[in-house]
Amino acid sequence: MNRIAFITGATAGIGEACAKKLANVGYDLIISGRREENLNKLEAELLKNFNCKIFKLVLDVRKQDDVFDRINKLPEEWKKIDLLVNNAGLAVGVTAIQDGIIDDWERMIDTNVKGLLYITRAVSPLMIERKQGHIINVTSIAGKEVYPGGNVYCATKHAVDALTKGMRIDMLPHNIKVSSVAPGMVETEFSIVRFKGDTDKADQVYNGFTPLYADDIADTVEFVASRPAHVNINDILIMPTAQASARDVVRD
Ligand code: NDP
Ligand code: 8X3
């Protein structure tokens, strides 16, 4: 086996791009997400293009029992996880708090915060056993700033920012690195999900400027993962050149 990376949310966007990037630099991969068909397609592409082994985990990170059951039942050779990319996440809606849709809030909190915690709780003891590992959390500019209608999504990403700092302290005695990569606007399925399938609205988000692409974030994740053993990148904030803050974007 090569080094092993476990990527959550590998069925689309940033996670899928990370899978390709990490396979290209020699990782074997545990790829996970809810959409089995997408995992099958990605597996076929990875096996065709790279010299890697793939383990697919069809998994909803919100399902606590499934997360622990599936990770505990990984074949022994796949439990030697060197890199965990906690990427699965979503925004739903841009509604002011007073009009908030409770189900949307729960989807975001359950996925972005609780799901990330379940995965980390299940994987980190495997790293501690081997006294090595690296956890990279995909946070966001929304974990550092807030914007109108961003309330709960921003809160979940602020939580991930805090959890990253807390995890880094907890993992310190165990030789496990903890990093975060915080992107600005990246054109993926993110806005289609946020606007519940309204592709016109989603397209408008990226109109008139060049956003980041999933590959840009995968490059950054690979950079963070490939620093020498004595170097940890705590946090990287990466923005499109046309974006200065959560609210400042220059459009044509
Ligand atoms: P996409 O919508 O393209 O991808 C999201 C991924 O998360 C999919 O693979 C999806 O898989 C997975 N996912 C969502 N819910 C669950 C769940 N309950 N269980 C398991 N997997 C789940 O968006 P991005 O690639 O852009 O988003 C990836 C991460 O990057 C997210 O955490 C997002 O918050 C963050 N981010 C995105 C930015 C952007 O502008 N795009 C900017 C900053 C951060 P499936 O549906 O198959 O389960
Ligand atoms: C996604 C970027 O600005 O839509 O985290 O919150 S933003």
TrEMBL record:
Family of the protein in this entry: Belongs to the short-chain dehydrogenases/reductases (SDR) family.
Keyword annotations of the record: Oxidoreductase
The protein, known as: SDR family NAD(P)-dependent oxidoreductase
Domain of life of the native organism: Bacteria
PROSITE patterns: ADH_SHORT
SUPFAM superfamilies registered for this protein in UniProt: NAD(P)-binding Rossmann-fold domains
Highest classification ranks of the organism: Bacteria, Pseudomonadati, Bacteroidota, Bacteroidia, Marinilabiliales
Gene3D superfamilies assigned: NAD(P)-binding Rossmann-like Domain (3.40.50.720)
Transmembrane segments: none
